[in-house]
Input
Amino acid sequence: MRGNTIVGEAAVRAGCTCYFGYPITPQNQLPEYMSRRLTEVEGGIFIQSESELSAINMVLGASVAGARVMTSSSSPGISLKQEGISFLCGCELPAVIVNMVRGGPGLGNISPAQSDYFQATRGGGHGDYRVVVLAPGSCQEVADLTMAAFDIADYYRNPVLILADGMLGQMMEPVTFENYAPRQIPEKDYILDGAKNRPSRINKSLILSPQMMEDHNWKLVRKYKTIERNETRYEEFMMDDAKLAVVAYGTAARIAKGAVKRARGDGMKVGLIRPISLWPFPSDIIRKRAGKTDLFFVFEMSTGQMVDDVRLALEGRSEVYFHGRPGGIIPTPVEVLRIISRQYYQKGLGE
Amino acid sequence: MKKVYERPKLLKDAIMHYCPGCGHSIVTKLIAEVLEEMNLADRTICIPPAGCAVLTYNYLDVDTSEAAHGRACAVATGIKRVLPDRLVFTYQGDGDMAAIGTAETIHAANRGECFTTIFMNNAVYGMTGGQMAPTTLVGQKTTTSPFGRTVKNEGAPIPISEMIAILGGAVYIERTTVTSVSAVKNTKRAIKKAFTAQVDGLGFTLVEVLSPCPTNWKMTPLKACRWIEEEMTKAYPLGVLKDETARTPGREAANAD
Output
């Protein structure tokens, strides 16, 4: 199956009954798939909305009515959704949002890129909030993380963003949907379905009293801390004796893994740290490596965004080198290997 | 003694923040009365987006969701599609309906989304302090049209209800006001008719209420009511703009054709 349709099938199998979205390349196979697939689901709802603004607010409505709901887009469309994402966070409503990132800024192009890392992890919308950001590196992981995303969203009452790119969206690989182990989700005691035999409920993010607004913000922070403790995901590859650690996520990590394997073949002690959750960022695992690993080689398909989080985690205790290819360029493992080798030997790690 | 009038139980025992002479408090009470009379309170979801009415949940004792400015019709779409047997209504001002939320409004109406919009038209942005609205009359002075609205600079007032009335998904559109006892009663009848059409699954319904804003118009409540009757109704004539409730088959039947 193709990455974009895997997202759709995984969502349906995780209990998603509602999809709202607006066409944009390179993710159109996903709404196209959902427009057919959701007709086979009881209570399935598909609307091609008039805009991204409308789509994310339909998501908010379906979420507050208790449904599992998803929207998807690519970079410029995700920019338009930011207002709604801020409201979802303020109202503590679950939703799954998919960004098949393309080159930017502006209209950019439709090639794979990783230039929306800041927008995804720092909150492109207004206010003190966090969105769980999951970055798959293969089609199987697209399936697994999409299914997990619905449970994480419901469990914490918080939006979850799947951050992939046009490469993963278009890539075809065999997948299984059997890895999914559903979580126990707390009863949705916040949904609005008419106040029958219970007091009426209010869904809002408007809190006019500064004291109550501060309390609400700290309540959100406590939730975010819990998420940081429980939902940090990463992969370590050949890191045991690594003198140089490549840090990369998603498509870039896939390319980097090829380069790391070749570097090992050439006798270099090189490993890979692949953050899977970008927020919460696996800072601890990087911090633990500080001092043991001489050089952190951050590779992104951007001009350097995640590299800030690596530097923050290391707090200056190890050296960081950045290699980036923005604009929709997909470098080869050979190119990355060449730069790894140069850094490895220039720093004297081969001795 | 015979009891002839009672405060609706759905109206919470709270002091409203609305200014003296404002139309919101009247319409909020009318909605409470209609929901009680139709026995719909325990299956209703109200969506008041940004604007003076955002605090409606402090007054109306039904399930209520806020919406971002302009997005009420999108939020209502999401809720109503998931819960098709509930009564869903938005309660929107003129800026929300006809400026920042025009797209959401037009497309929800065109899809024939089966919810009701109560549209409070007072020709200004009330909550933010009396700036020009899309419905501000030509010549009307506001804080952002200090010399009076001109067609040349700001364009003519937008007749959003007339625009919606030409769309296939809209089944009932009526414009009323609350400037007299009879007008208030007429508004209540219109709200009831819109809710009934929604319960019957006919399509999109809208009641536009020309509503006084004495504070921002800098008028006494009485003068504000006269201004609606003498000036506003020239740009926004009262009456039924569309009524297909007698012959619309409803979404399910329409899909079966």
Remarks:
- Residues 3-230 of chain A form a domain with the Rossmann fold fold (CATH 3.40.50.970).
